[in-house]
Every structure is written in structure tokens, then in C-alpha cells.
Amino acid sequence: MRLLVVEDEPDLANAIARGLRRDGHAVDVALTAVDADMKLRTAGYDLVCLDWSLPDGSGITLCRELVSGELPTLEGERPRILMLTARDGVEDRVTGLDSGADDYLVKPFAFAELSARVRALLRRDEGVDPVLEVGPLRLDPARFEARREGMVLELTAKEFSLLHYFMAHAGQVLSQEHLLEHVWDEMADPMTNVVRVTVSNLRKKLGDPPLIETVPGRGYRLGQ
């Protein structure tokens, strides 16, 4: 999944991003409201970790604009929003949630809790249990473990993230552009064949018979 961390403290923003990348997510960072606005308009994010207080604006304003559609997103669907803020009053929590945030986490926090809340919010869109099962495949995001017919698959973080996305959208045809938007971060070069190569490597590790098919001219599909 592709996430955006909006946080004006660079050290904290980068620490959160590193942790979420270890969880298998593609993560971009925005240090200002303007930067966040630009990224949200031009990339497809599944979830935003959003600070309340930014040097050039308010996270609450960004939240409201995302929810109302005033801030248009690339694919027309707003990402889940997790407020991360030092504001710990009851009124602050109410304001954040009433503004459209899906969850609210007060700083300082343990990364394990942040990670769990991110997984929970992403599951709302997937409409699945914490453990995904598609045909012979079983994937446990919390344990970072994937199996085929009980056998553990040795996957890289990117391959795991790609498989996670395929399983969450089983049966759907996913274009290379769509996968690039949701499984890779902004550092990925869209002119390279990184998606094709990673899909090819994942196919090999999944074994036979093949589970991911190529739909000519459209993309890839994981059978249900």
C-alpha cells in the first residue's frame, strides 16, 4: 500500500516512514501543507498519516478538503486519514474525528501501535480479515508472512507488498501504472520496467501452477 506521512519535523517524519517501509508499505513524506496538497493531487495514496500543526497550514483543513472532495485525489477516492498530533484534549480528538479523520493517535506513541492502526484502517477498504487467503495463498501482514499451501514464501519487502496488493484486489485487472501508484513510492522511475521485473520475480517465487496472469494490453490479475 502507498502511504503519505505529513509531518513538519523531518526526523520524526523520516523515522515513521522508515518503520512503515519495514512493514512493506511504499511511503512518501511531506513536510508542509503545500507539499502534501501537491502530492495528494498527483499520486494515489491509500492512507495519510496527518499532523495537525504544519508550518504553512492546518492538517485539519487538509483533512476537511480531502473528505469534502475540495482537494481532488488522483483516482477520485480519498485515502484513509490517521491524525498524528500532540493535541491530546477531548475537544481536540472530537474536532479531528468530526473533520473526517478515520482515527486519531496522540504523540508520543509507540510505533507498534501506529503500525497496528495503519493495518486496521487499510483493512476497512480491503473488506477482509487481518489474514488474507486467496486460493492456495495465505498472507499475514502483522507477521510479515506469506505461504502457498502451507509452505513459507521467501519474499523481499517489495514482493510481499505487491502480493498483498494483488490479494486485496484478487480477480481485478491491475495495470502497471496502477501498481506503480500504489505499491511504489515517488522515488520509483515510471520509465523503468520495475513493475514487470518485480511481478516476474514474484511469479517465480509463488511457483507452479502460475497464479498471476498477464492480461494483454491491460495489466495483471491474481485469480480468485
Q: How would you describe this protein?
A:
The protein is of the alpha/beta class. It is 41% helix and 22% strand. It has eight helices and 13 strands. The protein has a five-stranded parallel β-sheet with strand order 2-1-3-6-7, with helices on both faces. Helix 6 packs across helix 8. The chain starts with a strand and ends with a strand. The model has no long low-confidence stretch (mean pLDDT 90).
CATH architecture of the largest domain, by name, is 3-Layer(aba) Sandwich
Helix proportion of residues, in percent?
40-55%
- How many β-strand runs? 13
Number of domains: 2
**Which strand order spans the largest sheet, edge to edge or round the barrel?**
2-1-3-6-7
CATH class of the largest domain: Alpha Beta
CATH superfamily grouping of the largest domain: Response regulator
- SSE pattern: EHEHEEEHEHEHEEEEHHHEE
Point out poorly predicted stretches.
none
Number of contiguous helices: 8
> Which class best fits the helix and strand makeup?
alpha/beta
Cα(first) to Cα(last) distance is 20 Å
Assembly type: single chain
| CATH structural fold name of the largest domain | Rossmann fold
Tell me what portion of residues adopts beta-strand conformation: 15-25%
Radius of gyration: 18 Å
Average pLDDT figure:
90
- Report the sheet with the most strands, covering strand number, pairing sense and barrel closure: 5 strands, parallel
Overall geometry: globular
